[in-house]
Design goal:
Elements (H helix, E strand, L loop, with lengths): L73 E2 L2 E2 L41 E7 L2 E6 L9 E7 L7 E7 L7 H16 L5 H20 L11 E7 L2 E7 L3 E6 L5 E2 L6 H7 L4 H6 L20 E6 L4 E6 L1 H4 L5 H15 L3 H14 L6 E8 L10
Antiparallel strand pairs: 1-2, 3-4, 4-13, 5-6, 6-7, 7-8, 8-11, 9-10, 9-12, 12-13
Helix pairs in contact: 1-2, 6-7
Length: about 375
């Protein structure tokens, strides 16, 4: 049954369909009769559709500033912890070439220069009469020399000096030389017979090198060794390899106190002139050393009187290679001392500078103890 209020569907299938109950009727089809208007009635005028309100303009995003941050979420045991504060900047040092800062990997952020390794130049002056300098030299990339010094101004006339030269053809020799020097110093600072202390020190130094090598003794690190203990106007000296000790008195004949464990020394014993042997291809081939692959760790020892004013000098071959003969080295010490003064620290630095001026072909270590007339200020008359 049809609803009487519903108009019949239009014949035009494209005409809109009125909503049910709306009471609207569609215009009759063309040609249909139009109903007459009632007399006196004004023709009905269609009402104008009300104007739609103007759409409000959308505001620009974040025109009133950023939206507020959301409140911290709650978790099972309370609010989330506050955000961690930014880590403070770390000062990695200043480049001496351009004044820029180094980054955490040691490169200058301005000029790109690499930060120097602290081992490249080491100084030590434990007392007014003892000092040393250990330097990379001009040709080597790393410094494989090391030294360890002890002295006390409260105990004048007592000192301990150790110099080790890492073998550059073996890995980790820089670590080995430093470990050996420090281990030996601990033994030599003790009391008792100096020769026994030298034996203990050499064993401790050899053990320290072996510890650096670890489980692998193949291509193990190694180093030379020379040490001196000064007590009661006497210097007891021990050595393994070709690092040397010299006694250079102010008056009298300079002397070398150690004998090298090297092929050059073997050639000298066989009759080859020293200058020729030390300039040859086997000059710095050592026959004994500290290391797990060494045939012998027992040091050669000697004792020398140092009561007269003079210098006890320990050095790696980076110095003595340019002045091997004791008289030649004494002349260099006098010449350098006339320019820089006769205190141990500037004199040691001056000798290192001199070796660099000769070419700096190897690492250079110089350790000095002023003996005989040392005063608290380290000078001598």
């Amino acid at each position: 049954m049809s609803d009487p209020t519903t108009a019949p569907l239009p014949d035009d299938p494209t005409a809109p369909i009125p909503a049910p109950g709306s009471g609207r009727t569609e215009a009759p089809a063309p040609g249909a009769e139009q109903p007459e208007a009632e007399p006196g009635a004004d023709a009905a005028q269609p009402e104008a559709a009300p104007a739609e309100p103007a759409a409000e303009e959308e505001p620009e995003p974040f025109s009133d500033g950023p939206p507020p941050l959301p409140e911290p979420m709650l978790v099972l045991d309370g609010a989330l912890p506050p955000a961690a504060a930014a880590a403070p900047e770390v000062d990695h040092g200043t480049c001496t070439s351009c004044g820029g800062g180094f980054d955490e990997e040691g490169w200058c952020t301005q000029c790109g220069e690499r930060r120097p390794d602290p081992r490249h130049h080491v100084t030590s002056a434990p007392s007014a009469s003892v000092a040393g300098v250990c330097d990379r030299g001009r040709r080597h990339r790393d410094n494989e020399d090391a030294m360890a010094l002890w002295a006390d101004d409260g105990q004048p006339g007592r000192a301990v000096l150790v110099v080790c030269d890492g073998v550059s053809s073996a890995p980790r020799s820089a670590e080995a030389s430093l470990a050996a020097a420090e281990a030996a110093l601990e033994q030599l600072r003790g009391s008792g017979d100096p020769e026994q202390r030298h034996d203990r020190a050499a064993r401790a130094a050899a053990d320290a090198v072996a510890a650096v090598a670890g489980e692998s003794h193949r291509d193990a690190p190694s180093c030379t060794y020379v040490s001196a203990v000064v007590e009661d106007d006497r210097a007891s000296v021990a050595s393994i390899g070709d690092s040397r000790a010299y006694w250079l008195p102010d008056d009298g004949e300079p002397q070398r106190l150690t004998s090298d464990d090297s092929m050059a020394e073997e050639q000298v014993r066989a009759g080859i002139p020293r200058a020729e042997a030390e300039a040859g291809p086997l000059a710095h081939t050592i026959t004994r050393w500290l290391g797990p692959d060494s045939p012998d760790h027992r040091p050669g020892t000697t004792v020398h009187d140092v009561a007269a004013p003079g210098w006890l000098l320990l050095a790696s071959d980076g110095l003595w290679n340019y002045a091997s003969d004791p008289a030649d080295l004494a002349a260099v010490v006098r010449s350098v001392g006339s320019r820089v003064g006769h205190s141990p620290a500037p004199l040691a630095q001056g000798l290192v500078d001199w070796a660099n001026e000769q070419g700096g072909a190897d690492n250079i270590t110089v350790a000095l103890a002023r003996c005989g007339d040392a005063r608290q200020d380290g000078t001598h008359g």
